[in-house]
Specification:
about 475 residues, alpha/beta, Metallo-beta-lactamase, Chain A, Aminopeptidase, eight-stranded mixed β-sheet, seven-stranded mixed β-sheet, 14 helices, about 25% strand, elongated, binds fe (ii) ion
Amino acid sequence: MNKIHFLRAVWNDVILIESDGLYGLIDTGIKEAYELRIRPYFQEIGLERLEFILITHFHRDHYGSLPAILRDYPVGTVYMKGFSGLNSSTSNGRQATDEYNRTESALCADMCEQARNVSNLVMIDESLEHVRLGDFDFRVFGNTNAIREMYEDPASPYKGQIRFGENTNSAALFCRLNGTNIYLGGDANNESLDYPKYDRLNDQYCEAVKALTDGPIDLMKAPHHLCGNLFSEEALAFYRPRYVVATNWTASVYSQFKGNVNMLKAAREDVRLLISDRCGYVFTLGTNGQLSYEEIQKVPEITLEEIEPAADDEAANERFAAELNEFWKLHIRYLIEDGIISSAEDIDYFSGEEYRSVIEAHMKRDENRHHLAWFVREGKRIGACSYCIYDREDGKCFLLDFWVFKPYRGDGCGHHCVTAFFEHTKAQGAAYYELNCSLTDPTRFWKAHGFVENGEDEWGVPLFIRK
Ligand SMILES: [Fe+2]
C-alpha cells in the first residue's frame, strides 16, 4: 500500500510517505507541531520507525520538529539541506541580521551533529539525485547551494551580496508511481534572476519533470504555501495539477494568494485545492493510477452563536439581558487585558451606558444590524465578536471586536474562528470587511487573512479592509 499523508499544518510542512509499512518524512514542521500533531499521528497509525527524514531547506517551519523526532524515533537516514548562512530574510520574511545567520548556522550544525549521532546523515548536494522508499523513487531538484554559489562565483551579478532567503535553496521532489505523478514543491520560488543557472527555478524544475513524464501532475504540494511568485503559465499548462495541497489558511488562500489560485484554476478548471488548516489529508495511490484521499486530524467545527434580541416576550428579554451582561463583562476585560484600551477615559466609555445602549439599539433595528456573537466549539464558548453589516448600503461588514478567550488561544484557534466568522457573515450579506487595529500582533494576524491598510479612522487609528 502506498500513501502520502499531509499532516494538518499551516505555514509549515509535514509530509509522511508510506510504502508497504515503511515510512519517510519530508519536512518536520515547526517545533510545536511535534507534540500537537506529529507524535499523536505517529501513535495513531502505529509508526515506530522512519527510514528517512528529508529537510528541504533550513527554515524553522521545515526543520522545527527534527530534534524531537530524532530523540523519540529510530531514523535510518537524515537528508539535510544545509543552511547557507547568507540569508537576507528570515523564515518569517523579516530582515535577517548577521546574528540570525550565525544562530541558524550554529543550529544547523547542531542538528547535523544530532542526526549523525543517531542515524546516517546525508547532506543534500549535487550527488543526491534520488531518494527512495519502497515503491517511491523521488527525483530531487534544487540539490545545490544556489545562494552560496551566486555569492561566491566571480561571474555572478550577486557576488558578495546577501540578498536571498533560504527558500532559494529549497529542494523540490518529483515521483511517478504506478501512473500517478507527484510533485512536492518545498518552498521553491520562481524568482527572475540574472544568473541563468538559478533563474526561474520552478520553471527549470518543470523542464526536468517534462523529461520524466508527459504530465499532468496528479498530486502537488504547492510550493511555498501557495504564496508569492511560483508558477509561469507555461509550467502550469504542463503540470495541470488535479489535487493541490496548500499548507496555508483557508481564509488567506482565497484573498492574499488569489493570483496563484486563479492561475491554478485557469490551468485546470476542475483542480481540487485542499488547504491544510482545518484537517490534514491522506492520499492512497492505487496500482493503476487511481488516487483517492481522506481527511485526517480534523479540527472540531466552530460556529457562531448570536445573542438574539427578543422584543416582546419577557422571558426572552431576560435571557437577552443576561447574555448581554455576560458579553459586556468579558468585553471590557478583554479590551483591558489585551492592551486595546488603557486610559481611564476609554475604560469609562466602553463600560458606560452610552456606548452599550447604542450597540443594543442597533442590534434591534431591521437594517444595518449590529451583531454580538459567541464562537462555539464542541459546545463550549471559546471566543466572541461584535460586528455590524451595512446591508442597506454596500454590504460592508465592520468588525468592532474579535477575541478568543485566553485558555483557547494557540494552535490556530483564532484563524479557525476567522474562517467561521467569514462563512457566517457572508451568509448574512457581508460583501467586504473593515476593521481598525493599532497593535502589532493583531495587525499581523489580520494581514495574514487578507486585510490591507486603508487610511485611518476619525481617531487616527489605522483602518484595514478586506475585499
Ligand atoms: Fe515554509
